[in-house]
Amino acid sequence: MHTVFKTFVTLVIVFFFVACASLGYVSYTLNHYSLPSPTRVIIEKGQGLKEISAILESNRVIPDKYSFVAVLYYYSNFVRHFIIPGEYEFSEGSTPADALHKLFRGDRVVRKATIPEGYTAFQITKYINELEGLKGEITTHYPEGYLMPATYFYYWGDSRQSILDKMHKEMASYLSSNQITNPAETLTLASIVEKEARFDEERPIVASVYLNRMKMRMPLQADPTVIYAIYAGKTDFRHNLTKQDLSYNSPYNTYTNRGLPPGPIANPGKAAIQAVLSPAATTFLYFVADGTGRHRFATSLVEHNKNVQIYLASLKNQP
Fold first, then answer.
1. Would you call 128 helix, strand, or coil by DSSP?
2. How far apart are CA 74 and CA 71, in angstroms?
3. 59, exposed or middle or buried, with CB in 10 Å at 0-12, 13-18, 19+?
4. pLDDT for the residue 18
5. pTM of the full predicted structure?
6. Residue 150, phi then psi, degrees to nearest 5
7. Which tens digits make up the pLDDT trace of 43-102?
8. 108 and 155 in contact (C-beta within 8 Å)?
9. What mean pLDDT, rounded, does the chain reach?
């Protein structure tokens, strides 16, 4: 009996020292090992503690998975419920303790998608489909012109549809906050202004030209509307039109139809929309490019034709 008791005491002492040594090693590992170079890791939904530890080990975030697994098992209930799947970035010099805290906080990498003003719905869909880290298919499409171009933030694993939904919600909110009574007409003209004017300061002037033409029942004669009609919106609008193109049979052709086309030809940004809501007070009826990205404006056809000749002469002088 005495021998059994001594053996038991010995085992308890050995276990105590082993446990202390293990805890000491784990504590030392968590706080003294440092990541040799920055790295990013992906934690997928449904991955367990051992899988997470193996990922961290293979990316050198931790020196070995065994000590880290021990810590994670200690927090196992917390980990299972609160480690958010996603993309995590660990900087050079990070310790395993730093990594553990980052995982518990859900401090994931924030990615961004910048949608340029004037993109068509086709271009936006293509852009979102090519973004890294998004999942799923786009199943709900919105009408042309009703997506707000801007920078949107997302996490790895978010759905592609969620980006499109945010864009539509942002446009709806903007239209509502500005109390726009006829959003269809506003967005349609704004989309034309967006494609014609590159600089914000010119947009109210371009808007005034089209509004002046509409008051006089003159055709808008906006080249981007013809391009949109010919290419069904699957375009970057970098096309030179021929005389034959200008007679293309489509309700979007503003050379052969008076007034606005049936709907927007792109998704305008806030500056283009505001240009339509607050146009410049002008009597201009014409404008032509000046070769610098800006335009020359005119009130008469005679003046406009002179501006056209100036533009053509500038093209000849280009190297």
1. helix
2. 5
3. middle
4. 36
5. 0.83
6. -175, -175
7. 988 887 778 888 988 998 888 766 666 666 555 555 555 678 899 999 998 888 788 888
8. yes
9. 86
For the domain covering 22-105, report its CATH number. 3.30.1490.480
The Cα 34–Cα 55 span in angstroms is: 16
Residue 225 and residue 246 in contact, taking contact as beta carbons nearer than 8 Å: no
* pLDDT of 273 above 50: yes
Query: Tokens 């499109």 — which residue?
Result: 164
Q: Is 43 exposed, middle or buried (0-12, 13-18, 19+ CB in 10 A)?
A: buried
Q: Give the start-end residues of each E strand in 98-149.
A: 111-114
d(CA 190, CA 179): 16
pLDDT band with cut points at 50, 70 and 90 for residue 245: very high
Q: Exposed, middle or buried by CB within 10 Å (0-12, 13-18, 19+), for 249?
A: exposed
Measured in degrees and rounded to the nearest 5, phi and psi for residue 57 equal -65, -45
Q: Alpha-carbon distance 171 to 146, whole Å? A: 6
* Residue 71: other Cβ atoms inside 10 A: 21
Q: Is 42 exposed, middle or buried (0-12, 13-18, 19+ CB in 10 A)?
A: middle
Q: What residue ranges do the domains of the chain occupy?
A: 22-105, 111-176, 181-316
Residue 35 vs residue 310, higher pLDDT: 310
Q: What are phi and psi of 212, to 5 degrees?
A: -65, -40
pLDDT for the residue numbered 264? 98
Residues 132-145 have a mean pLDDT of 96
The span from the CA of 168 to the CA of 146, in Å, is 6
